[in-house]
Structures are given as C-alpha cells and as structure tokens.
Amino acid sequence: MPDLLIRKGRKQGQSTGRIAGAIAMAAVFCSCGGDDPTPRSSGPSLSIVAPGTGQIVLGSWIEVEIKTSGFEFADPAIVSRGGLSRINQTAGIAGALGPSHSLGYSGVAQEEVVAGYAKSWLDDDSAGARIATMESFVITGVHQGDHQLTIELVDVEGLPLEPAIRKSVTFRSSNLLAHIEQNTFATSCAITSCHGNARIANLHLDDGEAYAQLVMVEPENAAARDNGMKRVVPGDSEASFLWMKINGPSSEYGSRMPPTGPALTAIHKTWIGNWIDQGALPNDY
Domain 3-174 classified CATH 3.40.50.720? Predict the structure, then answer.
C-alpha cells in the first residue's frame, strides 16, 4: 500500500482567525435579518492539477496538487468528531451555521464553505484511502505501471459530501533507476574505460547491475570506508558517496565523477538524488 506524505497547502489553522473563530463558536447560531435573499455559491468544487492525465512520472513518489473552492481543509486529528462541517463567510466575518441558520447581511454575497479533508487512493484501494489536509502532498511507494488516482472531498467526520465531490486521473509511474541506468550511467559512467568493462574502483554500472553495485555497498576509497560511508544510503542522498562524487567531493574522496569531460547536468543529478531520497529502490519495483 502506498504511503501518503503531507507536504504543503492550505489548512484550517492557516486561515487566520476566521475558521478558528467559527469553530470556537460551534454552539452559536445566528439568524440575522430573517429570510435572506443573498445569493450563495453553488458549493465545493475539486480539480486535480497534478499529475496530469496520461502523465509519465519518474520514480515512486507522486507529487499531487489539487485545487478546491468552497472548501476549507481541517485536520481530523484536531477537529473533534461531530464538529462543524460548514462555515459561512460574509464580508470577512465567520459565523457558525446550524442546519437552517445563516448570517444575513443584505446585499452582501455570501459563500458557504464546507470544512473537511480529502481522501486519496490509487486504483481500487478505496479501503486504504489516506488523508490529505492540504492541497499539495506526495504519495510514496508507488510501483511502476499504470495507475488511477482518485481524490474525494469529505466532511470533518470523514463522510462523503452531498452531492459527492470526487475526481480521478490516470497516470503512469516509471522506474527511476532503470531510467538512470539507460540515460545517465550508460552514457557517462558505464563506458568501457571506466565503470563498464574496466570496473574502475571495482564498480560496474552496466544496465541492470547498478542496484547491487551501489546500495549499501562500501566504496573502494579508503577515507570513505574509514568514515563508514556507503556508495548509496537509501533515503539519504547527502550521506551517499555517489552523491558526493558527482557533485565534486573533497580531496580525500578523490576526483569528481565523471573524471573527464563535463560534469553531469542538473537534470541527471536530480534523477540520481531523487532516486536515492525516494529509497533507492531496485529497477523492478
């Protein structure tokens, strides 16, 4: 089951005092001005910005970005069960709503904002849906292949909205190590005179061999071994000898790799760094 990492975005607690104030007023219901003819919004909406439909995503981490309107994110760990799920915003003033109560300010457009969070799951695993309390987050541990991402907005009790607000998008996850082997190692590292047939530093980076040669393997460099380093430390590019070598190591760790010609470009370094930080997964993941 993929894991979900919350990253960034709008939260209920980041909305200044208007949402917090409304929750604090959960027991207060205001019906000012009787029948209120003021127009209201049509309700919450949801769109998936990323990944895009048919997008090929390199690696096992899927960066997700959604856009909502008429919806305010609330952390279910903070909002008690049975708390407010709808908040009325009028001219910057928030009030608690009951089933048939509203803040009536004649001539001022009102927006009913539903408070809750998003549920996210891949393919048919709705039972394993994870919670997202922001508009940007990352799903980790995604196997290579075709997937369908589904996101649904729910209220603070985790119940579907009425009508349901749910969107889906299909994408493909591509193995990042296989991509690096074919597009970086094969052209810049696994050449005959270096980490191909010559096996310089006892390192062979031909297609299909990089994982066994790199992950948690001691480097040949004596100073690096004495310092307890590994060629690749899953989840930690900064502690990985490979990362140091492609970025220009200190003199005790030898020369930059590749040793001749231009350094790897930024995109190649990004691929390698992402692969390591995403757990240095094998090319059959």
Answer: no
